[in-house]
Amino acid sequence: MRIGIVTKPDLADARDTLQGLRRWLADRGHAALWSPEAAALVDGAGPVVERDALPAACDLIVVLGGDGTLLAMADRIARGPDDVPVLGVNFGSLGFLTEITRPELLDALAEVVEGRATLDERMALSATVRRGGAATHQTVVLNDVVFTRTALSRIIDLEVWVGDQFVTTVRADGLILASPTGSTAYNLAAGGPIVHPAMDALVITPIAPHTLSHRPIVVPASRDVRVALTPANGGAEVYVTFDGQSGLPLAPGDEVVVGRAPRTVKLVRATQRTYFEVLRQKLKWGGR
């Protein structure tokens, strides 16, 4: 197999793990392809491949870092030509997506190369920014699309449509459109619901709404969600971010269309833990 290896930049704590991983792969005849950040931490690293090119060059990508590192790689995979699985190893603080621990890495990797691994297929979201009816930006996210105001902006006004049906005008500090996977990220912190990742749904959650009757709502992923800036925003600056990895300012009249992406993201799951065990462990769910 061709194994891509990605790390969070300057992750010095991963040196020993990476050296052990390099030896393990070499002993078994697997090719290791290193992102520039990972190669910088390993003596004698093999071929170096830029992150954008890794999905097309690998059969599996191992990510060492936190959830942000995995999200940045998952977005590249979802935009690429192949369904490359991702094995996330937690070197961050929470690690809800990078759920495999360091001691579990080699056992989990062995399960993948031997065809015994459990893969979770996670729905990704496609986001298109339109200006004057033309698409000006397109991307894919695993977690969420977030609309926020800038530091000096007042409350923002956003029209929300599901399919061809008008939902409401949200007056709030912002708005979150989250996938089931992203429901345990910013969405949860903003008071949105936890949605099991097997669900085919999308969550709409206002951030600090001006009207308390505005509550989160779960809608079918079979219908696109369209968010448009209303004239009431005036000169207020509105920013849209994609998985917290990239973003851009929106102008009056812009709209963002979010729906189910054509391709899922396959995550290697730790076979000894269920999704609900991860909830209990990572989020202290149900704890007293």
Can you give a write-up of this model?
By secondary structure, this protein is of the alpha+beta class. The protein has 2 domains: 2-123 and 264-283, Rossmann fold, CATH 3.40.50.10330; 125-260, Probable inorganic polyphosphate/atp-NAD kinase, domain 2 (Tumour Suppressor Smad4), CATH 2.60.200.30. Helices cover 19% and strands 37% of the residues. The chain has helices spanning 15-27, 36-39, 54-57, 67-79, 105-113, 186-189, 275-283; strands at 2-7, 31-34, 60-65, 86-90, 118-122, 125-131, 134-141, 144-149, 156-162, 165-178, 201-209, 217-220, 225-229, 238-242, 246-250, 255-260, 265-269. Strands 6, 7, 8, 9, 10, 11, 12, 13, 14, 15 and 16 form an 11-stranded antiparallel beta sheet that branches. The protein has a 4-stranded parallel beta sheet with strand order 2-1-3-4, sandwiched between helices. Helix 4 links the parallel strand 3 and strand 4. The longest helix has 13 residues, at 15-27. It is elongated and about 65 Å long. The N and C termini lie far apart (45 Å).
Helix content: 10-25%
Low-confidence stretches: none
Straight-line distance between termini: 45 Å
Anisotropy-based shape:
elongated
| Radius of gyration, taken over Cα atoms and rounded to an integer in Å | 20 Å
In DSSP terms (H or I, runs of 4 or more residues), the helix count works out at: 7
Quick check: average pLDDT?
90
> How does CATH name the architecture of the largest domain?
3-Layer(aba) Sandwich
CATH superfamily of the largest domain: Probable inorganic polyphosphate/atp-NAD kinase, domain 1
